[in-house]
Design brief:
alpha/beta, seven-stranded mixed beta sheet, four-stranded antiparallel beta sheet
Length: 310
């Protein structure tokens, strides 16, 4: 549903995006992560027809954002971080206006406006001028605007920004509900808990390059560090037979074994002893999306690594 290859864009001598490749399925909620200035907004603007790439190709809902921008726009919704609004119009008038601009007749425009105001939790303020809205309320209105016309692809830039915890939960629930209906969601967010809850996969971009791609069903891992006196050949053989093992690393007197999900370290200690090792110490560490993000942004190099299916 979203595909690009070799996407690059420079501004003068600054390389904002360099060789970005993405392949996102229909109905998938995909998280796009990275620090400020990493290239998230530039990539999103290229995919949504607002900016042309210097190099590369893309398809969004089957159409080229460069050569077929109108077809792409008909099939996407986009919520920017700062929503431009007509502050004197009411929320209802705002949605009706954009519904008319999308070619809906008056009856359909009214129906969708009322339905979406209810859906995003704004029916009680539908008649108030948007200029009186808080940032969180404007975020909800922006999401309603993006959902006009039943888009196939939804681009969201910090959709829960400015919302209280209850509002954040409502937005997350709405994202899940939207994707269940077959809509593909491209989510830019700094809120890792939000991403973990709603996304199936994430990509981390740094300095314009994607440095990590991760399936979130494999994001939670347990790392066991073993300090051993000697490493007989049978040690590796015995440890690698443990269920859910992801990786085995050995460095001198230290062995690190990584598991998909939780593991009882007593089982690991027992396996090491059965493998002939003299166990001096054992430590356990949990790895989650926060750790993965920090490793990719702070410690990782600019070489893309994948975890999980593309």
């Amino acid at each position: 549903m979203i595909w690009c290859e070799g996407f690059s864009r420079s501004f003068g001598e600054h390389e904002a995006v360099v060789g970005v490749d993405l392949d996102i399925d229909e109905g998938e909620v995909f998280g796009f992560l990275g620090p400020n200035g990493a290239g998230k907004t530039t990539t999103t603007r290229m995919l949504t027809t607002l900016l042309e790439p210097d190099t590369g190709e893309a398809r969004v809902a089957g159409y080229d954002p460069v050569t077929e921008p109108l077809e792409v726009r008909r099939r996407i919704g986009y919520v920017p971080d700062e929503l431009p609004v007509y502050e004197r119009r009411t929320a209802r008038e705002f949605l009706r206006l954009f519904a008319h601009l999308e070619g809906m007749d008056r009856r359909e425009a009214n129906r969708q406006a009322e339905t979406l105001l209810e859906r995003v939790g704004l029916p009680d303020v539908a008649g108030k001028p948007v200029g009186q809205f808080s940032k969180g309320m404007k975020q909800r209105l922006g999401l309603a605007r993006a959902l006009l016309g039943d888009p196939e692809v939804l681009f969201l830039d910090e959709p829960a920004s400015g919302l209280d915890p209850m509002g954040q939960r409502e937005i997350r629930s709405l994202i899940k509900e939207t994707s269940t209906g077959g809509v593909t969601v491209f989510l830019c967010s700094h809120d890792l808990s939000e991403v973990e809850e709603v996304c199936q996969r994430v990509a981390v971009i740094r300095d314009g390059r994607i440095v990590r791609e991760q399936a979130l069903d494999r994001a939670r891992r347990t790392v066991i560090r073993l300090d051993v006196d000697g490493q007989p050949p049978t040690l590796r053989e015995r440890l690698t037979r443990l269920p859910n093992l992801h990786a085995y690393e050995s460095d001198g007197e230290v062995v690190r074994v990584t598991f998909e999900g939780p593991v009882d370290r007593r089982d690991v200690a027992r396996a090491a002893q059965e493998g002939g090792a003299i166990l001096l110490d054992i430590e356990e560490e949990q790895v989650d999306l926060e750790r993965i993000y920090e490793d990719a942004v702070v410690d990782g190099d600019a070489t893309r690594t994948r975890e999980g299916p593309p």
